[in-house]
Amino acid sequence: MDRRPLLSAKDVYPIPAPIPTLSFPEELSDPQLSTDGYSKKKKEKKQMDKEYELDAFDQAMALGIEKLGAADWAGFQVAVAAKDAASAWLRLKDIMLHPEERAKVTPDHVLSVLVLLSRVKPVPKITVMKDVIAATDQLPVATDIRHQNALLDAYSRLGDYTAARRLAIDLTKKNLKPNLRTYNLFLNLHIMDNNLDACVNFYNTMIENNIEPDVETFNILITGCLRFQKPLLLKSYFEEMIALGVEPDQRTIIQLIQHYSRNSSSKDTFLESITNLQETYVSPDTASDNKCKVEPNAAIYTALVKAYGEHREIDLARRAFALGKVCPDCDAYLYTVILRVLEDDRQQKKQENNENVENQMQVSRSNYAEAVELFTEMMNTQTIEVDGVAFAQFVSIVLENGDPDSAEKLTTIAMGTRGIPVTAKMRTQLMEGYAVLPGRVGDVVRIFEQMRADKMFITARDYNTLLQALAADYDVELLERYWVRWLWNFEIEPMGMDQNNKSSSIGVSKKFERPDADSYRIVLDAFITCHDLPRAYKVVDRMMAVGHLPSTSAFVALVEAYVQSRDYESAAKIMLNMRTAVSKRDGIEGLKNIIAAHADQFERLVVNLVEKSEELARTSEQQELKMNTPSAFSSAAPVNRLAYLQNLAEKAPAIAKEIETKRVLGIELYKELIAADCSPSEDTFATVIHAHTRAKDLVSGIKAWMSFRALYPSDVPKPATVNAILQCVCNLGKHSSARAIVDMVKSKKLPLDAEGYGYYLFLLARWGWKNELISAVVEMVNDGIKLTVTIVTQISDALELYQGDDAVATRREVLDFIEENWPEMMSLEGEDDEGEGEEFIREL
């Protein structure tokens, strides 16, 4: 037909995607998320380019260049039949250089070499293919569209979509008319480039230009619809295919089976669709005369087995397998799929029958026995070449059965005798199989070292398995050794794999996977469990530095361990790290949720820290007071006195710092509890008020009391709690606060013991409330609490602080009242010599 060529520059330039009516989910538009492996070529292109100069093809070419000689048609035919791309090209080059034989070269000869070159692994030999085409242009036979199609296919396989488009545009410049194979290749190119919309648009252009599609065209469209989850579009293309009279082939049937398996609304719908598909388009046996039906092969039955397995139709899967294994093209993949289906069924039944142990064991033994039988049958079938995938699946089944020793024998003996290499994934499975068995950590270490010796790529999963096994065995030293070695890889070579990829000149790069969150968690939990706090602290620091957040339980366990070890400074730092990390990741609400979930642990820490701080402070004061009495100090020799004073001066700052650290940590934890809307107990509030009082943060002490009363308004506080707030207000020295607490004691009838009455009477005397003071003394005695010298002294000292106009009269009247009713108290006043030691030290 006389019309413009379809593959013009306008047609093949990238079409903006997505088209609104055909847009697909954003996550599927990412090449890294493709499901059929096409986009991996893009991702691995740099690595494959490095391997380009080292593959078997180039090695064969390097050896063959020196052996160029006479034209050898027989050698060429043998090389083509053996799919030896290097030898085929070298023999063809000899023929092309021969003056007489070159005339015998046909386009088919050239095409056979180009096809082989396009399928060289790991990458197609684009440069050599261009050389072949250039050499063909020098022959009487000119290059044709099939040659360009082979080059287009090679660009697609390589993932160089820009070059493929450029080649398609250049076809018209070479006076080559695209054929249907060209169009199909270009359709597939769009699918590989993750652009279904462009593929659909190009297909519509084909139809508009009267290009009749074939079964390959529709197979490409159906592949795209499957890949990008477009079931309705897939259905429309299949219906269009049938309406145009295009007969489906085996690939079409396989893709339809996958479509029905993924997109059926229910199991019944799936079974009905599969049954209709088989009855309508698949011939039941090879003797069928219906030419519209597809002859079933092992690939179709493999797809059926997999689909039935996904829908838990195990009997139907077995039936499809039985039909598939008698097909001439039966291969190891059919056996691998049925083994996987049986194993998945065993796992699901295990979960369903987890309460019935006997039934669970029976199902497990039955499925395992069937798997062993199938694997043995596959091994004994001479026409089946058992590959590493089949072995890997059976090894996985053996490991699930809890027999890593047999699994390892399979990999070392059975695979070794067949020349099948053991993959890193299989070694990983063996490690995990040994790791779950007690006392087999040595085997885990052995396999790990084998992987290192064989220079296998060791993943974070492998390291985690090893670390978990060592942690379960409480072998902290060996765990530390492997952990440090892992980290050392990146400290010595900070750029890791990326740096090597940029600078490698031989095509081999060192590969390391960095530790993930699980890695740090395993090591941290192990060190905490073994109470190796310095190492645990280092792990937390490094973990935070690389952006991983330890679990809350690990944080809390580490804090408790430090508190038990009396390392309160480290405990405070850990808590600060947790607060910062959680707030940064989850915000304030996230921090509140974590604290609320562990409120009991936090509260115990508050009480323990503050009480230990108070205990240390009291002990220090008592020892200082005891050693500083005149009798103790004067009885010591002059040299000992000087040493004592020096020791006291040296230790005092450290002791004071320790007391302050404990107190501050306890108070900060209390604040976090309140901020998280938790409700600490009354004892915790009393402890915190005491801590604020000793820290001279009296306003915060009063706030703690108010928080307590707001949380428990109807509860009668304990005398110890009332004592704490009274002592705080006494030290505050503020008239309004004193008035408020005095009124509260009277109105709420708060319980007072001897200590509480002492503080209460001190407040009344301090502010000159004479009548209330006298009444309170009488109430105290009536409550059965004796008036002591200490209380009288508190009253007297408080009256001295009162600065009102009636201070003298008030003092005299109160003391006269006490002397009149308790004369013995006034006669003893001043006899207490507790302050003599302090006066003596002040004089020194």
TrEMBL record:
Residues 18-45 are annotated as: Disordered. Keywords: Coiled coil, Repeat. It holds the Pfam family PPR_2. PPR repeats lie at residues 144-178, 179-213, 214-248, 516-550. Residues 339-367 form a coiled coil. InterPro entries: PPR/CCM1_RNA-binding, PPR_rpt, TPR-like_helical_dom_sf. This is Pentacotripeptide-repeat region of PRORP domain-containing protein.
